[in-house]
Amino acid sequence: MTSAAEQRAPAGEPAGSGQTAAVRGARRAVPPVPAAWPGAPTPLGARFRVGPDGVAGTNFALWAAGAEAVRVCLFDEGGRETRIPLTELTHEIWHGFVPGVLPGQRYGYRVDGRWDPWTGARWNPAKLLLDPYARAVDGEFGLPPQVYGHVRDWPEQHVADTVRDERDSAPYVPKGVVVHDDDDWSDDHRPKTPWADSVIYELHVRGFTRLHPDIPEELRGTYAGLAHPAAIEHLVRLGVTAVELLPVHQFAHEDHLLRRGLRNYWGYNSIGYFAPHAAYAASGTTGAQVGEFKRMVRALHAAGIEVILDVVYNHTAEAGELGPTLSLKGIDNRGYYRLQDDARRYADYTGCGNTLHVVQPQVLRLITDSLRYWVTEMGVDGFRFDLAAALARSMHDVDMLSPFLAVIAQDPVLRRVKLIAEPWDIGSGGYQVGAFPPLWTEWNDRYRNAVRDFWRHALPDVREMGYRLSGSSDLYAWGGRRPYASVNFVTAHDGFTLRDLVSYETKHNEANGENNRDGTDDNRSWNGGTEGDTDDERVRALRRRQLRNLLTTLLLSTGVPMLVAGDELGRTQRGNNNAYCQDNEISWLDWSLLEDPGWRALYDLTSRLIALRHRHPVLRRRAFFSGRAQTADGLRDLAWFTARGAEMTEGDWYAPAATLGMYLSGRDIPGRDERGAPVVDDSFLAVLHAGDRPTGFVLPGPPWAERYEVVVDTSREEQAEAPDTVHPAGAEITVPARAVLLLRVA
Q1: Among 714, 705, 710, 707, which residue's Cα sits nearest to residue 722?
Q2: Which residues, including other chains, have CB under 8 Å from residue 473's CB and lie 6 or more apart?
Q3: How many CB atoms lie within 10 A of CB 56?
Q4: 422 catalytic, yes or no?
Q5: Helix 597-615 / helix 229-238 crossing angle, nearest 10 deg
Q6: Alpha carbons 623 and 626: distance in angstroms, whole number
Q7: What is the mean pLDDT of residues 455-482?
Q8: pLDDT value at residue 490
Q9: Closest Cα to residue 389, out of 415, 428, 347?
Q10: Cα–Cα distance for residue pair 427/389, rounded to 1 Å
Q11: What ranges make up the beta strands (E) of 140-262?
Q12: Catalytic one among 422, 464, 567, 568?
């Protein structure tokens, strides 16, 4: 049989894209034959190497503890299959070295064993299975009946999952691709931005680049498109320090979406934890996607931007007992998934049909091997863990001493990268905001809720707002955690965009085909008096002001701010708050918004606020405020004021209020700079007023200040670089309705 990889890569093709010098220099004495040499049980997956006598080939290793037989299946360009038994079994790993198999070869596994769904055994050799360690995937997952391990259309549906389907799935499923890479990353320089200095920008590789007019059409929607200078220029001008990419692991589309003519756009349905999603590659799907992803990472690093991946290790695309058999379910169902006492059923803490059994050593190995691979071989700088509470469960309950968290804490690679938890799942006791150990940061949804409620004037008092603006010490001031443990956000991919948050009071998800039942009803939004788009310029101006208020609040708050791509441009999803299946203009970033003066002004303000944050360490503190006077004059590092100019009393915190003054002292910043000198900065007074009418505010006098200079005024459509408005301390100024004033102490 002739390997699909025998077509040589062009000279100088990047590592990871096909054959390398190592491949070309090896003896190719024999073609692939239907027999495997013993090989080695490690590393897991398909790894090209030079074997005995200088013969080039690939070592295949698959953990399948309860299996009775494993065959690796090789596919040529015409789809012809050669099945090669792996007869060596070491510590539950089936392995073998197949000479002549080179990078670019497509492959899969067939795993034989008992069919006994009542005990959780679902082996079916008729189903071709994707290697969990495949580093590239060729082809796309459709879901015809043949890819199900059971007879999907069995007349008695309540027992359909117990009837084995004998039809061959190979023609209908993607294949793994052998990839060889000897890249040492010697020319790459990671930015290594400290947490406190980080500004995160959540984006979708396809959606961010799909409509960009300055990116060549053939690169739009791809890793190469995100690496293009036009895309990077926007990120650099905006000032963000990291991109957080929605899932780029190989994922599959759900059956219910395919039947409605839709696709999974967000990608939270992973099936290949080592493979960059092939549909985002401009360079092909037979291994070249690996090199393309690496070039994207290098380009972002060269611009000083870190790459954080949103990863989904809590469940896979195989769903529950009625889901397809694509990989783990057919390799060792009981070993990889949490099952109920009735082993036919899956424990589902994710809402997606299954949950990976992270307590199992082999599952833990799969996840940590994947994480290390993306750091060491793909160059990424950190991870955001979807439904991280599901990973922290021991046998049932969420356990902050769980094996997963313990392994991460001691791993010499993973403990050094950025780790962000989505600190909840849908199971009992799954809400764990503030509970993750010191190594972790967390998405802080209490910040999101408080800021939304404040600006729609729905908070009963300002206690919650005070905590959220100052770093959420009530949640994170324990165990050595710091203010940057709080990843502050007002919007995320899941929910309304920022523009929709001020334009819609209810969701409008009809395009998803679920009769508007999907998506949260707890939006905490306010439309300004009219639902959706309007020609009423008064309403439009109010909405733009609210956007300025929300962005200014986010970027002045202590903690790590996270923006969503397009919020700085006024991107809309037309009221859809669950656009996970909208791979179209609803989700793609509309770059023409930059041509609208109103939206361009919003972008300019956002960029200016980020630059202000970068310049002033008082806005990105590395330690919590003490609130105590450090010197005889009584000046404290943090103080709160009412509109009367008086410091807030305990009663003021419990009273209804629409106005809050926050004083940040630049004189009392803890810590020292890189040369050991004290860190000293300007001091600022931020006045937030959510009321629908202007209010007076008395500026605090000495020792707080002698005069104040206005730096930001969100009531203004355009923000001058230097407003040149100075007020004496003790003066009563007028704060416009629904506005933030940021004043520098002069």
Answers
A1: 710
A2: 467, 483, 624, 625
A3: 24
A4: yes
A5: 60
A6: 9
A7: 96
A8: 98
A9: 428
A10: 9
A11: 175-177, 200-203, 242-245, 249-251
A12: 422
- Residue whose token pair is 């409008």: 508
181, 254, 386, 500: which is the annotated catalytic residue? Answer: 386
What is the identity of the amino acid at 491?
T
Model confidence, pTM: 0.94
211 and 230 in contact (C-beta within 8 Å)? no
| The pair of three-digit structure tokens given for residue 252, joined into one six-digit string | 């599959």
Contact 25, 77 (CB under 8 A): no
The total of other beta-carbon atoms located within 10 Å of residue 621's CB is: 24
Yes or no: say if 673 and 622 are a contact pair by the CB < 8 Å rule. Answer: no
The 10s digit of each residue's pLDDT in 569-612 is 999 999 999 999 999 999 999 999 999 999 999 999 999 999 99
Task: State CA 151 to chain mean position distance.
Answer: 36
| Sign of the CA dihedral running 239, 244, 245, 248 | positive
CB contact at 8 A, 203 and 240: no
* Cα–Cα dist 426/738, whole Å: 36
Token code pair at residue 226: 């995100």
Q: What DSSP string describes 396-432?
A: SSB-TT-HHHHHHHH-TTGGGSEEEE----SSTT---
Sign of the Cα torsion 100, 103, 105, 107 reads: positive
| Three-class SS state of 282 | coil
Within 10 angstroms of residue 422's Cβ, the number of other Cβ atoms is 22
SS3 content of the chain, % helix, strand, coil (to 5): 25, 20, 50
* 393 Cα distance to chain centroid: 21
Reading across the β-sheet that carries 707-713, which strands appear in turn?
A: 638-641, 659-664, 684-689, 739-745, 707-713, 726-728
